[in-house]
Automatic annotation (TrEMBL):
Name of the featured protein: Transposase
Domain HTH IS21-type: 240-304
InterPro entries: HTH_IS21_transposase_type (IPR017894), Transpos_ISL3 (IPR047951), Transposase_DDE (IPR002560)
Highest rank taxon of the organism: Bacteria
Length: 480
């Protein structure tokens, strides 16, 4: 007898089954109950269909939310029961994977990372590894022979793991990761030439007899901006760390030793050690992101020269235009104007490094007329950035057309130019030459893996960050 809800009504099902007894005294089982296929299971407290419904709910949502949803559907259960049911689901068969996609994901960001493995033929996850080491990937590949192509990012651990676990497989570096890596080095190169972004006609103030000492105003304003940047806590900290790292390097200390002594990450110490001057480390801070006052500066200059020098009045005016910053920030910016008695001419601000990087990396046909004209103006007055743009366009053509045979010529052309940041990029391409050539030639890429990582993140968020790795693994393998 079973009491089940049907269409909101309680229905009692009566089942008649046979029961058998064993007369063999040596048999440990004395009685046997007949089972009804699809309705009952041995030693089970719920029917297979009810178990399947609860498993589906547990896979779709979190434990507490699943218990609440099941209760609304008339399936009374607890969150712990849902977790046990999900953990008890057998793993789907993996079979033979020919093209394998590999990428990492954060179980706990900046602390714990795992590895997701994808069958690129079906775009379905086949397994999750609890770390992202070469040994784990190599062990999995040895246990699942048949992989002929491994699609991965530029991580060295995955390259080593694929080499050890599947020596005969071809490794393919993902094109998106190649382009993303190039974008980072292009931005660093543009920062090195950030002075070329400013229009030279706006650097020299024109004499105006109706204004008071325009050259002095310009110089005082520039000096005040520099002083504000130099006194920032992050700039002071960078200077102190740079001096300490350089001093310890001169004393013969290793990168690891400096990292322990100064309690800095090894990557940070290595970046400080490779910098030839402190200016290389401060370019990003000096360029910075635009503050809330940035787009109101031309208006403030114009109003000040018109005779409105009351900070509260100016604050009210720019607040009406959308200013969200503070009053002290405004008074600090206006202080040099009071010293000289006038404001510098309202000149358009130079484009940000990040914007120029985006313009250079974007296809020319996708840029609007304004951005295209500004980029052409910058390239016309800067031969270095013009050559950089040519290298970027050549790489984009090679990547989109899948002309991997051009990689060596492109690398040689870049190394013949004076771009130290791009030289670091080409050095990385050389270390992973075969995989990069395959990525620029073959049709395979890791787009499907990135999509699975995004879905995995959504699953992890729905579990409120308290999920154990084995539960997360069940959800990603059995849900999609």
């Amino acid at each position: 007898m079973a009491d089940v809800p049907v269409a909101g009504q309680s229905v009692v099902l009566w089942l008649r089954m046979r029961r058998f007894f064993c007369d063999n005294e040596t048999c440990p089982l004395k009685t046997f109950a007949e089972q009804v296929d699809g309705v009952t299971s041995a030693h089970a407290r719920r029917s297979p269909r009810l178990r399947g419904m609860l498993e589906s709910i547990g896979l779709a949502v979190a434990a507490r939310a699943g218990a609440r949803l099941a209760a609304r559907l008339g399936l009374i259960t607890g969150r712990d029961t849902l977790l046990r049911l999900v953990r008890a689901i057998p793993d789907p068969p993996i079979g033979t994977v020919t093209v394998l996609g590999v990428d990492d994901f954060a179980v706990k960001r900046r602390h714990t990372y795992g590895t997701i493995l994808l069958d690129m033929a079906t775009h379905r996850p086949v397994d999750l590894l609890a770390d992202r080491t070469a040994e784990s990937l190599a062990a999995w590949l040895r246990a699942h022979p048949g992989v002929t192509i491994v699609c991965r990012d530029r991580a060295g651990a995955y390259a080593e793991g694929a080499r050890l676990g599947a020596p005969g497989a071809q490794q393919v570096a993902d094109r998106w990761h190649l382009w993303h890596g190039l974008a980072g080095y292009v931005e660093k190169t543009i920062r090195q030439h950030h002075r070329d972004l400013r229009d030279p006609d706006h650097d020299i103030p024109r004499p105006d007899p109706d204004r008071v000492a325009p050259l002095d105003v310009e110089q005082v304003t520039i000096a005040a901006d520099i002083d504000r940047v130099e006194t920032q806590a992050v700039v002071v900290r960078i200077r102190e760390h740079y001096q300490a790292v350089q001093q310890l390097l001169a004393e013969g200390e290793s990168i690891s030793g400096i990292s322990r002594s100064l309690r800095l990450d090894r990557k940070t110490v290595r970046r400080f050690a490779r910098a030839t001057t402190i200016e290389e480390l401060l370019i990003k801070q000096r360029d910075g992101r635009p503050g809330p006052l940035e787009r109101f500066k031309p208006y403030l200059h114009e109003r000040w020269n018109q005779g409105c020098t009351t900070a509260t009045v100016l604050l009210a005016e720019i607040r009406e235009q959308g200013y969200t910053g503070s009053y002290p920030a405004l008074t600090c910016y206006l202080r040099p104007f009071r010293t000289v008695g006038a404001a510098p001419p309202a000149t358009p601000a130079p484009p940000k490094v990040r914007d120029v990087t985006r313009w250079m990396l974007q296809h020319p046909d996708d840029l609007d007329d304004h951005d295209r004209d500004r980029l052409n103006e910058i390239l016309a007055r800067s031969s270095a950035l013009e050559r950089l743009s040519f290298h970027v366009a050549s790489f984009a053509e090679m990547m989109t057309g899948r002309h991997g045979e051009r990689l060596d010529d492109w690398t040689a052309a870049v190394e013949a130019d004076d771009f130290p940041e791009l030289h670091s990029f080409t050095a990385g391409l050389k270390r992973d030459h075969a995989a990069v050539v395959n990525g620029l030639t073959m049709e395979h890429n890791s787009g499907a893996v990135e999509g699975s990582v995004s879905r995995l993140k959504s699953i992890k968020r729905s579990m409120y960050g308290r999920a154990k790795f084995d539960l997360l693994r069940k959800k990603i393998l059995c849900r999609f």
